[in-house]
Amino acid sequence: MSSMINVVVADDELPAVEELAYLLSLDARVGTIHRANSGAEALKALEEFEVDALFLDIHMPALSGLDIARVISRFTRPPAVVFVTADEDQALEAFELAALDYVLKPVRPERLAESIRRICEQVEEEIAKPEVVTVDQGGVTKMIRRDEIRYVQAQGDYARLHTKDASYLIRVPLNDLEQQWSSAGYIRIHRSYLVAMEKIDTVKLATGKASVLISGIELPVSRRALPYLRERLAANRVRPL
């Protein structure tokens, strides 16, 4: 993998959390490890951080591991779920909830390594698979690939998605798309525009005015957004060794 996976470890017994976190930290494929002592803390971690997988104990007060799996199964792109438990009897229900793996305590390092391998494979598959956006047009529902969207234009509480050949109006504010698509390379250049960084052909930086060209269409860059755009451009600049 080109990058490490970030995980959440959730168990209502603190020693179990620390032991599993330690074992995970020994694997070079694991990056950030977020610890949670309850189901609520695990869900909070999902809200605050980018997470690739959860290692969940099944029996936790209030929100059990199975409850958490039910919640995240409704996510557009749910993180992988690995149950880590001493209970052999819940495996069927766990896999019915699309669990990636079911590891019995006490956890053996080689067994944990297998779970991490499965997670890494799933993450790589998700990265390779283009995100699909559902849009309604004239009473017909269409599926378009997100990587075909060159820029997005704000229109009140709606947003217009512009591809090479067409545009589509969706009832999602531009602010929401900015947050949801930032990890896919979309950046805000103006209060009215969100653009795919890789689709920008030219950047014009004139005195007191800046703009970008995407397929011959010129879009303004606000003074507020310009510093971040410059930062992204600098990050992509080729430098001598």
From TrEMBL:
Pfam families: LytTR (PF04397), Response_reg (PF00072). It comes from the Bacteria. Residues 6-120 form the Response regulatory domain. The keyword Phosphoprotein applies. The modification 4-aspartylphosphate is found at residue 57. Keywords: DNA-binding, Phosphoprotein. InterPro entries: CheY-like_superfamily (IPR011006), LytR-like (IPR046947), LytTR_DNA-bd_dom (IPR007492), Sig_transdc_resp-reg_receiver (IPR001789). Residues 143-235 form the HTH LytTR-type domain. SUPFAM superfamilies: CheY-like. One of its GO terms (molecular function) is DNA binding. This is LytTR family DNA-binding domain-containing protein.
